[in-house]
Amino acid sequence: MSDINSTFYDSDLDAELVAVLRTQGLEVRKADSGDRAQTDPWLDAVARGFLDSERNDTHRQGFFERTAYRRKLGVYDAAGAQPEIPIATFATWGAELTLPGGVVPSCAISSVTVAPTHRRRGLLRSLMVGELRAAAAAGFPVAMLTASEAGIYGRFGFGPAAAAAKWRIDLRRAGWRVSEPVGRVDFISREEGRALAPDLHERVRFASPGEIDMPGGHWDRTFGTRPDAQKAEELRVAQYRSPEGAVDGLVVYRVTDTESFGGATVRVVMLLAATDAAYAALWRFLLSMDLVATVEASELSVDEPLWWMIADQRAAKITVGDHQYLRILDVPAALSARSYDVADTVVLEIEDDLGFAGGRFVLTTRADGTAEVVATDAAADAPVARMTVVELSTILLGGVSPATLAKAGRLQADDPARLTRLFATPVAPRLSFWY
Questions:
Q1: With 0-12 CB in 10 A as exposed, 13-18 as middle and 19+ as buried, what is 2?
Q2: CA 394, CA 324: separation in Å to the nearest integer?
Q3: In terms of DSSP bridges, do strands 292-300 and 264-273 run parallel, antiparallel, or are they unpaired?
Q4: What is the pLDDT of residues 301-310, one digit of tens each?
Q5: For 36-50, what is each residue's pLDDT tens digit?
Q6: CA–CA gap between residue 176 and residue 310 (Å, rounded)
Q7: Treating both helix axes as pointing N-terminal to C-terminal, what angle do 36-49 and 57-66 enclose, rounded to 10 degrees?
Q8: Which of 393, 403, 399 is CA-nearest to residue 425?
Q9: What angle do helix axes 2-10 and 123-138 make, rounded to 10 degrees?
Q10: DSSP label at 51?
Q11: What is the DSSP secondary structure assignment for residue 252, as one 8-state letter?
Q12: Contact by Cβ (8 Å): 88, 76
């Protein structure tokens, strides 16, 4: 995948993107990740776009040191009062996305902002379509993002493929139903946790469709080990060791509302568990704390085993929302990168307004889980499913049933149940962080 990443990172800006913005008197260019004179104002624009406070030199240096892998686009208005600060930003990089039974190189998208002074000029559309063209040309079969606003990206072909659950647990009621976990949990320093986390995450992410390799800089942000980390002193880290001595789990959390004696809240920042025993032990640890009334956690799976571990399920208030969005750019490459549990053949007729993934495809899966996808106009003796690229991207990870989408009027299928069996997976997709 490194060849795709470097090809994409070094590729020229999309010619149509450059030309369209030039007609508005605007210039789009890549901010040089090796030059703080360019990355500092770019970061300032991103902070402003997400309503954050002004960045100081410590923030800017930390960002500069940890984001060189990102392709940073800025749109500049020479006639503005601050021409050095972009009025729109867009960041992309190559990442590896876990699929059911496989992985696929993907183009990750982040830092998407447009200044309120330049709304309604098509800047987001120009940047998105231009970078999708660049990503497709480099060879990425899929693009992906986590969205701060849910209603924006469907028009560009993105579908919500991995939902996230947010839990709020009342410890006075929760209890514990299953046997006490084996192994031991110990506190460690934030620095020790930071050192252990990357290898542990590599063990975990391949078992969870929707997960990606951790972007640069995220570990230091998670553990508060970068100079610009805010309230890092509030973070606590614990590890789980198996009876054999292997570190199979980590949890990062902070405690708030401590002024209320006995009513504190534990907010889980991240929990990594490579084994069932580690998962049970770390959650048991969190649910057994003295002086704590509530445990909160987000970016969890919609099918957490924890639901079946607590004694009173009504102690947990769970809300579910969209989280990881996918956008297929190459149908044969994306569908053949995952595995399937049944052998079958279906015809997929896909509409794509942007022209990347539209067409008629025959998907043939084999008993060994592999698949062949052929684009063809020829007739095939197989059931047909018709949908847009949004729906195809949504079902790629198996997180939503095609039969459900058919009932919702989002796709049409000759045999929805058969299509559902084909794309079903035993593990609900998830992504455990934002990027």
A1: exposed
A2: 10
A3: parallel
A4: 999 999 999 9
A5: 999 999 999 999 999
A6: 4
A7: 110
A8: 399
A9: 140
A10: T
A11: E
A12: no
DSSP letters spanning 92-135: EEEEEEEETTEEEEEEEEEEEEE-GGGTTSSHHHHHHHHHHHHH
**125 CB-near residues (< 8 Å, 6+ apart):** 156
Residue 254 token pair: 């902070």
b/e for 60-80, b at 16 or more Cβ within 10 A? bbbbbebbeebbbbbbbbeee
**Could you tell me the two tokens for 320?**
């579910």
**pTM exceeds 0.90, yes or no:** yes
Dihedral sign (CA 363, 365, 369, 373): negative
| Furthest C-alpha separation in the chain | 71
User: Strands, E, within 55-204: which ranges?
Assistant: 71-76, 88-99, 102-114, 142-146, 159-170, 184-188
Measured distance CA(197)–CA(219) in Å, rounded: 8
pLDDT tens track for 146-184: 999 989 999 999 999 999 999 999 999 999 999 999 999
